[in-house]
Amino acid sequence: xxxxxxxxxxxxxxxxxxxxxxxxxxxxxxxxxxxxxxxxxxxxxxxxxxxxxxxxxxxxxxxxxxxxxxxxxxxxxxxxxxxxxxxxxxxxxxxxxxxxxxxxxxxxxxxxxxxxxxxxxxxxxxxxxxxxxxxxxxxxxxxxxxxxxxxxxxxxxxxxxxxxxxxxxxxxxxxxxxxxxxxxxxxx
Length: 188
Hints:
Blueprint: H1 3-6, H2 9-35, H3 46-70, H4 75-100, H5 109-143, H6 149-160, H7 162-186
């Protein structure tokens, strides 16, 4: 997913917002045509899953870039990102399974609720933890080892106000990615 780091800010904006909408509408039309599911765009969870995947992959690749460049994460945090990504994918699959029943599960209702509860709330916690790690990496990249809580909050707000923040975040990530790529090209 490193191609996301190569995109310009306007390309990423179009991918995340228009790509989510167009991809969702196209997916729903195809599913309705092929399987006759009777889905409407407003009732479907597909736009949520697509935007969840795109935004999450942007964050995870950016966290990896910031960690490689500035050693922003501890070993425990690297492990959380690695296994948390798998957990978030499982959460997205569970969301899709509730809409389409991709995998017929013979699970009692109480256990199904428990699995959904763990996946949804765990997924939400991990998603916000990834936002924290991303903002921490940005603070370290911008202010060095002497970053303060205020610096972290500024970076956090840039990420949370995503449509506006992407116009300032992505050029910085592009610059870091180009520097890493040129450094890797020089050293064998």
